[in-house]
Amino acid sequence: GENVEQHPSTLSVQEGDSAVIKCTYSDSASNYFPWYKQELGKGPQLIIDIRSNVGEKKDQRIAVTLNKTAKHFSLHITETQPEDSAVYFCAASLRMDSSYKLIFGSGTRLLVRP
Amino acid sequence: DTGVSQDPRHKITKRGQNVTFRCDPISEHNRLYWYRQTLGQGPEFLTYFQNEAQLEKSRLLSDRFSAERPKGSFSTLEIQRTEQGDSAMYLCASSLRGEPTYEQYFGPGTRLTVT
């Protein structure tokens, strides 16, 4: 079945540095790739997404890249701030009959040290 | 607040008891999803509704689990005869119908602890 692998599982960076999280998916039919940020005790918050017809998308300090050939996609956070500390999940879409479901990676715990 | 809401936020129950959770999606969203998240893992899909119709169920959804969305608005997820393995965060998400709108927005979750 569809599988999404996410690395690293933990990431510690100094405030102001960049952070990169990488994911690999298995189903070549996946065409939608969202990223979620989850803070302690809260639900996942959609922060950015990318569709298969686009190779890169940027929104202020965050950017996502997609390599469909290699089935890789990545999240890049620049100028990290302490409030970026959270668990980040990547996901890939898997088509159902009338909609789609999301297959999630296992998460990356990001710690931004002040 | 016009986001997805879930109730209760926390539930502690004894093994063998039944529990029911409620999800209120974003008002104009006609698609509703339930996911389960265990500690240290990403959410896993359980089931999906389009309006009041339950169109997809995961193998994770054993016969002790039942979900409804009677009027195509709020949804309930019931677990009968709870087991310790049911302890998890139960997340609800909603989205608009139609391509290419794919975004799923999650609620805060209901954390279930079975003792």
Write the layout of secondary structure elements.
The complex is a heterodimer of chains A (114) and B (115).
Chain A: E1 4-7, E2 10-14, E3 19-25, E4 32-38, E5 45-51, E6 56-59, E7 62-67, E8 72-77, E9 86-95, E10 100-104, E11 108-113
Chain B: E1 5-7, E2 10-13, E3 19-24, E4 31-37, E5 44-50, E6 53-57, E7 65-68, E8 75-79, E9 88-95, E10 105-106, E11 110-114
Parallel strand pairs in B: 2-11
Antiparallel strand pairs in B: 1-3, 3-8, 4-5, 4-9, 5-6, 7-8, 9-10, 9-11
Rounded average pLDDT of chain A: 94
Quaternary state, please?
heterodimer
Cα end-to-end separation of chain A: 41 Å
Q: Helix fraction of chain B?
A: under 10%
* pLDDT averaged residue by residue of chain B: 93
Summarize this entry quickly:
Chain A is 0% helix and 59% strand.
Please tell me about this protein's structure:
Chain A is mostly beta strands and 114 residues long. Chain A is built from no helices and eleven strands. Chain A has strands at 4-7, 10-14, 19-25, 32-38, 45-51, 56-59, 62-67, 72-77, 86-95, 100-104, 108-113. In chain A, strands 2, 4, 5, 9, 10 and 11 form a six-stranded mixed beta sheet that branches. In chain A, strands 1-3-8-7-6 form a five-stranded antiparallel beta sheet, with no helix packed on it. In chain A, a hairpin with a 6-residue loop joins strand 4 (32-38) and strand 5. The radius of gyration of chain A is 14 Å and the shape is globular. The termini of chain A are far apart. Chain B has 115 residues and is an all-beta fold. In chain B, 0% of the residues lie in helices and 49% in strands. Chain B contains no helices and eleven strands. Chain B has strands spanning 5-7, 10-13, 19-24, 31-37, 44-50, 53-57, 65-68, 75-79, 88-95, 105-106, 110-114. In chain B, strands 2, 4, 5, 6, 9, 10 and 11 form a seven-stranded mixed beta sheet that branches. In chain B, strands 1-3-8-7 form a four-stranded antiparallel beta sheet, with no helix packed on it. The radius of gyration of chain B is 13 Å and the shape is globular. At the A-B interface, strand 4, strand 5, strand 9 and strand 10 of A face strand 4, strand 5 and strand 10 of B.
